[in-house]
UniProtKB/TrEMBL annotation, chain A:
A biological-process GO annotation: protein targeting to ER
Organism field: Jaminaea rosea
Family: Belongs to the SPCS2 family.
Transmembrane intervals: 127-145, 157-178
GO CC annotation terms, alphabetical: signal peptidase complex
Keyword hit for Transmembrane helix: yes
Residue stretches of biased makeup (Basic and acidic residues): 7-16
The protein, known as: Signal peptidase complex subunit 2
Domain of life per record: Eukaryota
Primary location class: endoplasmic reticulum
Subcellular location: Endoplasmic reticulum membrane
InterPro entries the record matches: Spc2/SPCS2
Automatic annotation (TrEMBL), chain B:
A cellular component term, taken from the record's GO annotations: signal peptidase complex
Cited PROSITE patterns: SPASE_I_1
Name of the protein: Signal peptidase complex catalytic subunit SEC11
Top EC class for this record: hydrolase
Keyword Chloroplast: no
Keywords per UniProt: Endoplasmic reticulum, Hydrolase, Membrane, Protease, Signal-anchor, Transmembrane, Transmembrane helix
Enzyme Commission code: 3.4.21.89
Subunit structure: Component of the signal peptidase complex (SPC) composed of a catalytic subunit SEC11 and three accessory subunits SPC1, SPC2 and SPC3. The complex induces a local thinning of the ER membrane which is used to measure the length of the signal peptide (SP) h-region of protein substrates. This ensures the selectivity of the complex towards h-regions shorter than 18-20 amino acids. SPC associates with the translocon complex.
Reaction(s) this enzyme catalyzes, per UniProt: Cleavage of hydrophobic, N-terminal signal or leader sequences from secreted and periplasmic proteins
Family note: Belongs to the peptidase S26B family.
UniProt-listed InterPro entries: LexA/Signal_pep-like_sf (IPR036286), Pept_S26A_signal_pept_1_Ser-AS (IPR019756), Peptidase_S26 (IPR019533), Peptidase_S26B (IPR001733)
């Protein structure tokens, strides 16, 4: 699905239409990505929505578990209102401006968001089940083909292997179904007045359809298309006393913006923008005041 | 040319690579499980076979796919069966002409003949005058015409087989990107 009218660079101007400034957004992004070496830059296929979504989903865990030495390069000092590509939604810009202080790449700024420790229990469980099932059926098939070639003798174990394969695959499918669209499960420990444990589960629901903007492109007479918005559902809990006291629980959906706000026309994923949105909006949703999360 | 793919590969964690490999492995193991499962259900080591010769014309032609099962009751005259010979080699699909119970009564002695052949199969048995039930792979329960011709072509021209396998491999490589 391409972003018509006009693919590539022009499509992102739809964003700028509302900010009434086109050239400075390009330089803002150039500043954010220029510091990255070529091999770290991520390029995806712009027209493939599922690839765009999975790039974002993969980035969520990467960002939330990243150690204090953040790879995201420093953004330029407070962008002029209206020039930033983030200004398409007004309150987001306010957050970005106020959030600059903790994502400016300096060590104390980056430490304001201590990393989570991700849990891969279910992913590992599914991998183990899948590999076990495949190993069993392939091994028994090889045995019946190479060693015990008489059908009357090998059919017993073959039946056992098939039943085992069905059972293990069903368990694997059940786990995948129960996990749903979860993309991140993690915890982190904080020390403020006491040891507190925060747990976070993030799900990534299906992308909505792109919407038609009310603005019309003067040359073609067609409406600009706004790319689908990217939202995340999260369950956040803060406990202390060894998990016995619940200090805070939030279950909500954060909308980070639409995909065009951190994918360039060439398909480059500007992780710095995405990280800013993700961390900023999550912290706001959790009700954490600035700097509160910094103490360890 | 493969810059983006190589960069993507380098970014993958061990877990991600294992997951990708498992997807490929699952394709192989699911097809194996389906085939073996069918074998168990119909009690036949080779539940799907392709006709290679014209000895059963006009019933079956070269390239027809046959669906087999091993009946629990005794085999009867007129049944079309696939059997293995004592000397190994390709299984043969012919029609049963005669059946006899052996002296103990728990096995059957079988004589077969291809519909399109002039004489019965005794010369094909490689020594014995009768087939035994243990040599029968299965009784033909149904067939699908023409579908098996691909197998014949791939066997007669091995280069095509390798070319096809190469194509499948390349397509899996390129489609495996989307996690």
């Amino acid at each position: 699905m391409s972003l018509r009218p006009g693919k590539g660079k022009e499509s992102l101007k739809g964003n700028d239409e509302q900010s009434s400034s086109s050239s400075s957004s390009g330089s803002e992004w150039a500043a954010r990505t220029a510091a990255l070496p070529q091999e770290d830059r991520i390029y995806v296929d712009n027209s493939n929505l599922s690839e765009l979504k999975s790039t974002c989903d993969d980035a969520v865990e990467r960002i939330l578990t990243r150690q204090a030495n953040s790879l995201a390069p420093a953004p330029t000092p407070s962008p002029v209102p209206g020039a930033s590509p983030t200004s398409s939604t007004t309150n987001l810009h306010d957050d970005a401006a106020s959030g600059d202080s903790y994502l400016d790449g300096s060590s104390d700024g980056a430490a304001a968001f201590p990393p989570f420790k991700a849990s891969h229990l279910h992913a590992d469980l599914r991998l183990a089940l899948g590999y076990l099932a495949s190993t069993i059926i392939i091994a028994v098939s090889a045995w019946s083909y190479l060693v015990e070639k008489d059908w009357q003798k090998n059919k017993g174990w073959t039946a056992v292997a098939v039943v085992a394969y069905i059972a293990l695959s069903s368990l694997q499918a059940l786990d995948a179904y129960l996990q749903g669209d979860r993309i991140f499960t993690g915890r982190r420990k904080l020390l403020s007045h006491r040891i507190e444990t925060e747990s976070l589960i993030i799900s990534s629901p299906a992308l909505p359809k792109p919407t038609l903007s009310s603005n019309v492109d003067s040359t073609t007479g067609k409406h600009w298309i706004i790319p689908p918005t990217y939202s995340l559902d999260f369950q956040y809990a803060r406990r202390s006393n060894g998990g016995k006291s619940l200090l805070r629980r939030v279950e909500d959906r954060v909308t980070l913006g639409h995909l065009g706000e951190w994918f360039t026309g060439e398909g480059e994923f500007v992780e710095a923008v995405f990280e800013e949105r993700l961390v900023g909006m999550l912290q706001k949703a959790w009700g954490l005041e600035e700097g509160e999360g910094a103490e360890r | 040319m493969f810059q983006n793919e190589l960069a993507w590969l380098r970014r993958q964690s061990v877990r991600g690579l294992l997951a990708q490999f498992l997807t490929v492995l699952t394709v192989l193991s699911t097809s194996l499980a389906l085939y073996k499962g069918l074998s168990c259900v119909v009690d036949s080591e080779s539940p799907v076979v392709v006709v290679l010769s014209g000895s059963m014309e006009p019933a079956f032609y070269r390239g027809d796919l046959l669906l087999l099962s091993m009946p629990s009751e005794k085999l009867k005259v007129g049944d079309i069966v696939v059997y293995n010979t004592v000397y190994g080699g390709t299984p043969i699909v012919h029609r049963i002409l005669e059946t006899h119970d052996d002296y103990e009564g728990n096995d059957q002695l079988i004589l077969t003949k291809g519909d399109n052949n002039d004489s019965d199969d005794v010369v094909l048995y490689g020594g014995p005058s009768w087939l035994r039930r243990s040599q029968i792979v299965g009784k033909v329960q149904g067939y699908v015409p023409y579908v098996g011709y691909m197998t014949i072509v791939l066997n007669d021209y091995p280069k095509l087989k390798y070319a096809l396998l190469g194509l499948i491999g390349v397509s899996v490589l390129f489609s495996g990107e989307d996690s």
